[in-house]
Amino acid sequence: MSASPFESVLSSLIRQRGVLGCLVVGEADGIVVDSNVQVGIQSNVVAALAAALYRKARLCSAAAGLSTVGFLQLEAERGHICAIGRDGLVLVTLAEPRAHIGRIRGAMLDSVSVLA
Amino acid sequence: MRTHVAEPWIEAPLQTFVDDAHALFALLLHPNGQVMGQFGFTRAVDVMAACALAAAIHASAGELGKELDGKPFREMYHAGRDRQIFIGDVPTTRERFVFLTVFDSESSLGLVRIYFQELCELLEHAQPTTTSQTPISGTSLEHDLNRNLAILFGRAPLGADGGESSLSLS
Q: pLDDT tens for residues B5-56?
């Protein structure tokens, strides 16, 4: 059985400090393609909602004439959700408040080519 | 637009699903094709046809699942060009239902599956503690099918006891 093409990307992201999980999700259907998440995270639920959020953000950005969404970050009381997409796939990362978002952002931007 | 239900305990769970999942159509039925609640349909004949087809698809998929996997398929999904359809089995402790929903690109399969699980849990908690089960005969099945359709489309006058009385659609 061959490894997923996203395995190395997810492995490098999950090793970042404060990252709770990362997923590759279909933007249209919100179904998990591949994931690496800590125990206790409902990856299916997060995937569906994050994909819907990213899709709405993309449509909103386009409607406002702002072109494509580069990087989406949701800051919540107990952490962050970051998303970046290309060609119908979305890379989603969940992180604790203490996580270094700059590094995560950089790693995600470096990884976006694997989604194509 | 609001949901229409044959029994009041179904309304809140079904409305919650429709609101959360942004469904275009929703249908809750018994596996025998008797409608229990609906959203989005405007004609009784469409509900009748959808219930018959959903019941048949559910039964066929159940048997196919047993043949292939040793257990019935619980969920089915088909993506059309603009709209998508999802059919799921709703097991509760007292009764089993079939759920059908149609959605477009405003929603997604992932969201529908999440809210379908939530619907199953809400129905489980909302169902009454006692149900009056009567044996199904050819006459009572047709009677029940027509009664629920009449209730959903406002054609069933209240009976002497304040409850819905049956009314033939023919």
A: 989 999 999 999 999 999 999 999 999 999 999 999 999 999 999 999 999 9
Mark which residues 106-135 of B lie under 8 Å from A by CB.
107-111, 113-114
The answer to whether residues A31 and B86 touch, using CB atoms and an 8 Å cutoff, is: no
Given CATH 3.30.450.30, say whether it is the number of domain B4-152: yes
Q: In this structure, which topology does domain A7-115 adopt according to CATH?
A: Beta-Lactamase (3.30.450)
Instruction: Decide if B105 touches A, using CB distance below 8 A.
Output: yes
Q: Assess contact for A13 and A36: CB atoms under 8 A.
A: yes
Q: Which residues, in sequence order, are CB contacts of B141 under 8 Å at separation 6+?
A: B32, B34
Joined tokens for residue A22:
């990362």
Name the residue with tokens 């409850």.
Answer: B163
**Predicted ipTM of the assembly:** 0.85
The model's pLDDT over B121-168, given as tens digits with 9 standing for 90+, comes to 999 999 987 765 555 666 677 777 788 888 888 765 444 444 444 433
Residue B153: strand, helix, or coil: coil
Assess contact for B100 and B26: CB atoms under 8 A.
yes
Rg (CA), chain B: 16
